[in-house]
Design goal:
It is a single chain. The chain has 331 residues and is mainly alpha-helical. It has two domains: 48 residues, no CATH class; 248 residues, MetI-like fold, CATH 1.10.3720.10. It contains eleven helices and two strands; from the N terminus they run ββααααααααααα. Strand 1 and strand 2 form a beta hairpin. Helix 2 packs across helix 11 and helix 3 runs antiparallel to helix 8. The chain is globular and about 80 Å long. The protein starts with a strand and ends with a helix. The relative contact order is 0.12.
């Protein structure tokens, strides 16, 4: 390292290496501080350490609580597990498990495109006017509505006002209404949090606004959007009240009938379909009709927890892969 030299009063003064200069500057700065400033700095550092410890404690508390709750549910399910519970008969939960995955898939097909499109509109196209404010108030009100209210709304609009009986599509639409606010808000916040240089740089290279959104902004927002999708899927996996009036409490599936127009076809979205969450509720309220109601309910709850965890981990893995590919990192 070379010594630093400066001219002071017409004379060249050697200050030494850069480390010496830094140490000298810090020393002079500390000497210039009075006792009050030093006390404030010590207090600020002390408060920072205390608040950091408190926040870590709160986060650790909820993490431990989540692990204990999930562990308890899974252990109870493992202890009560019997192989026949996975059958596709009335004594098993195979049909309910399929209905749950199928309904969540249908709801994501509806809510994800609409939610992302709404988030893009709110972040990039909507101005600061009465319409935008009304949309924000509507989203906030919708996100705070009890699911039973959405279920009654779905029963009125998707069942009573149509010629159809309870069906999986009506349940998926009801769950989509519950999921739209979280996906929309997550997408909007993700786009707004990006540096302005992302959009300006792409448009400076000749891209249109829509090309900048689809090729630059959305790929950069993928991890946060995936978070909104995970929340929406979790809502679908665990929802029961909204599905009580829309999806129905019966399941009649013929696994050899693949005619989509048949009421017993597994892939027909217009057939009734009881999900695992609704099945748990039925077992706990009308359990006297089944000798193994408690055991089946415990196994169903454990499967729901594992299913949600697997979906979350898979979505995170896909998000990381997309992010690495977009940034040019090795997958």
């Amino acid at each position: 390292m070379q010594d630093k030299e400066v001219i002071m009063d017409g004379n060249i003064v050697n200050l030494g290496t850069s480390e010496t200069v830094k140490a000298t500057v810090v020393t002079k700065r500390e000497e210039g501080m009075n006792d009050e400033m030093r006390r404030r700095i010590r207090n600020a550092n002390r408060v920072d350490r205390i608040m950091t410890g408190i926040l870590y404690g709160v986060g650790g508390f909820f993490l431990i609580l989540l692990i204990l709750l999930a562990g308890y549910i899974i252990i109870k399910g493992i202890l009560d597990f019997q192989p026949e519970f996975f059958s596709f008969s009335r004594k098993g939960i195979g049909n309910q498990l399929f209905n749950t995955v199928y309904l969540v898939f249908l709801s994501l097909l509806i809510s994800v495109p609409l939610g992302i499109a709404a988030g893009i509109y709110m972040a990039e196209y909507a101005g600061d006017n009465m319409l935008t404010k009304a949309i924000r108030v509507s989203m906030e009100s919708l996100s705070s509505l009890p699911s039973i209210v959405i279920g009654l709304f779905g029963y009125l609009v998707f069942i009573l006002m149509t010629p159809f009986d309870t069906n999986l599509l009506a349940g998926a639409l009801a769950v989509s209404i519950l999921s739209l606010p979280s996906i929309t808000t997550t997408t909007e916040d993700a786009i707004r949090s990006l540096p302005k240089s992302y959009k300006r740089g792409s448009m400076g290279l000749g891209a249109t606004q829509w090309e900048a959104i689809t090729t630059v902004l959305l790929p950069a927002c993928t991890p946060r959007i995936i978070t909104g999708v995970i929340l929406a899927a979790g809502r679908g996996f665990g929802e029961a009240a909204a599905l009580l009036y829309t999806a129905g409490q019966s399941t009649r599936i013929n696994w050899s009938d693949w005619n989509l127009l048949s009421s017993r076809c597994p892939l027909n979205p217009m057939r009734p379909g009881e999900t695992l969450a609704l099945h748990i509720w039925v077992l706990r309220t009308e359990g006297s009709m089944n000798a193994n109601a408690t055991e089946i309910a415990n196994v169903s709850a454990a499967i729901l927890v594992v299913l949600t965890l697997v979906f979350s981990l898979t979505a995170r893995y896909m998000s990381d892969r997309i992010t690495k590919k977009a940034t040019g990192e090795s997958a």
